[in-house]
Amino acid sequence: MRITPDTNVLVRAIVGDDPGQTRLSRAALSNASLIVITVPVLCETVWVLRSSYRYQPAQIALALRTLLRPAKVAVDRAAAEAGLAMLDKGGDFADGAIAALGQQLGSDCFVTFDRRAAALLAETGIRAQLL
């Protein structure tokens, strides 16, 4: 079966804090012939791991890289990599993913009021402007 997991499925598979749901989540991911992971689900997963489980950026990046590694995972790789690049620099995954998606759709520049996001995006090679 080809599946698109919800955020809660990914979080359970990563965190493993509920034995029953963890088993079901991991089995669904393991048994799927294709796992389609959307960028919004990645952003939500990062937010939940950070805010509810107090994962550090490096822990989140490792979990996502492990999750996205199998060939049967379909994801917007450019957006995921941009988000991971931001995490690696201590920034927000969503800012990197959103900026990359904007570029794919024809944007020249990510604009923000977030000074740190603008600076980190520039360091990753994405043009950003502080308003």
Structure description:
With 131 residues, this protein is mainly alpha-helical. The protein has one domain: Rossmann fold, CATH 3.40.50. Helices cover 61% and strands 10% of the residues. The strands form two sheets. It has a three-stranded parallel β-sheet with strand order 1-2-3, with no helix packed on it. Strands 4-5 form a two-stranded parallel ribbon. The mean pLDDT is 97.
List strands and helices in order, with pairings:
Elements: E1 2-3, H1 7-15, H2 19-31, E2 34-36, H3 39-51, H4 57-68, E3 73-74, H5 77-88, H6 93-104, E4 110-112, H7 115-123, E5 128-130
Parallel strand pairs: 1-2, 2-3, 4-5
Widest sheet: strand order? Answer: 1-2-3
CATH topology: Rossmann fold
Main sheet record? 3 strands, parallel
The end-to-end distance, rounded to whole angstroms, is: 46 Å
Number of distinct helices: 7
**N-to-C SSE string, H for helix and E for strand:** EHHEHHEHHEHE
What is the mean predicted local confidence, pLDDT? 97
| Binned strand content | 5-15%
**Which blocks of ≥5 consecutive residues have pLDDT under 50?**
none
Please give the CATH class. Alpha Beta
What class, by secondary structure content?
A: mainly alpha
Helix content: 55-70%
Q: How many separate domains make up the residues?
A: 1
Overall morphology: globular
Radius of gyration computed on alpha carbons: 15 Å
Strand segment count = 5
Assign the CATH architecture.
Answer: 3-Layer(aba) Sandwich
